[in-house]
Amino acid sequence: MPKFPFMEFNEKTISTNLGTKVFGQRILFFKSIKSTMDYAKKIAERDEPEGTVVIADYQSHGRGRFGRIWKANPGENILMSIILRPKIPLERFSIFPFLSAVAVAESIEKNANIKVTTKWPNDLLINGKKFCGILMEASITAESGDFIILGIGINVNQSEFPPEIRDYATSLYLSTGKIYDRTELVKDILRQLEINYENLNKSNDFKSVFERWKKRCKMLGKKIKVIQGGKEITGKAIDVDDMGFLLLEDDNSRIIKLSSGDVTVLK
Ligand code: BTN
To answer: Would the CB of 121 count as within 6 Å of ligand 1?
Structure first.
C-alpha cells in the first residue's frame, strides 16, 4: 500500500499543464532505477534533446558528490536528472549548479512558505539542515556535442533519516509538518529552472545569478573548515566569485581559491 495513495506521481501527471517550452517536454519516469544520472547520460549520448527529465520514485544506487551514496526512501522524494545542452563556453558551465540551486530555492520557498539558504557549493538548507543536493556532470563528446546532466535530489516527504545523517539532514515534511504533492513541486521547479536558464541565455548576466545565490548564503563572512581531497583548510569564507570558486582567507591572511570541497561552519 503506497504511503501517499492520493498523490499520483508519474510522467503523465507531471506533463499535464506543465506549460514549459523545453524543461520537461520529454519525461522518462521510473518506479525504480539505479541512478537517474547514469540513465540521463546514456540517452544524452544518443542525441536526447535539451530539457529531457529522467525522474524516479526510487534509486538503488543514487549518487552524491565525491562518489558518495544519495539515499532516499521510495515514493517520498524528488530524484531527477535533466539534460542541458548549453550554448556557452565550457569553462562557464560551473554556473549551472548555482543557477539550479537558486531556482529550486525560489520554488520551494514559494510552495512551502519557508526560508531556504544556500551552502557552497551546491547544497540547499532549511534551518541549517540539508534538504536538497545538486550534482552536475558535464560530458564533452564529438558525436552529440557538449552536454550537462544536472541531478537534483530533494527530500520532500521523508520523515526519518539514517542515524549517520540525522543531525544534518531534513525534509520539507520535517521542516514544515506538511506533506507535499511531488507532482506540483516538480512542475514548479521545472518552470522556475526554465525561467532562470532562459534569462541567463538572453542576458549572459552571470553576476546576477551569483548575487541571488549569495543573498541566500549564510556562511560568507564566517570561519569555516573545508575538506578537499583529504586535506583540511580553515579560514574565513570571503566570497564566491563569478566562476563559482570559494575565496577563503586563511590564518596567514592569504586568499585561497577553492573549486570544490565539504564545508563546515565553525562556531
Ligand atoms: C550531493 O551530494 O549533495 C548531490 C546529490 C545529488 C542527488 C541526485 S538524486 C537525482 C540524481 N541521481 C543521482 O544518482 N544523484 C542525483
So the answer is: no
* Cβ(97) – ligand 1 distance below 6 Å: no
For a pocket test of ligand 1, which of 60, 135, 168 has the largest count of ligand atoms closer than 8 A to its C-beta?
A: 135
| Helix segments in the chain, DSSP class H | 11-15, 36-44, 95-112, 172-176, 182-203, 206-215
Residue 133 CB–ligand 1 contact under 6 Å: yes
For residue 116, give the nearest of 218, 233, 256 by alpha carbon. Answer: 218
Closest CA to 246 of 209, 255, 254: 255
The residue written with cell numbers 541571488 in the block is: 212
136 alpha carbon – ligand 1 mean position (Å): 9
Q: 59 CB under 6 A from ligand 1?
A: yes
Distance 251 CA to ligand 1 centre (A): 34
Q: What is the DSSP letter of 48?
A: P
Q: What is the pLDDT along the chain (267 residues), one digit of tens a residue?
A: 446 656 799 999 999 999 999 999 999 999 999 999 999 999 999 989 999 999 999 999 999 999 999 999 999 999 999 999 999 999 999 999 999 999 999 999 999 999 999 999 999 999 999 999 999 999 988 777 799 999 999 999 999 999 999 999 999 999 999 999 999 999 999 999 999 999 999 999 999 999 999 999 999 999 999 999 889 999 999 999 999 999 999 989 999 999 999 999 997
Ligand 1 pocket check for 81: Cβ under 6 Å: yes
Q: What is the pTM of this model?
A: 0.96
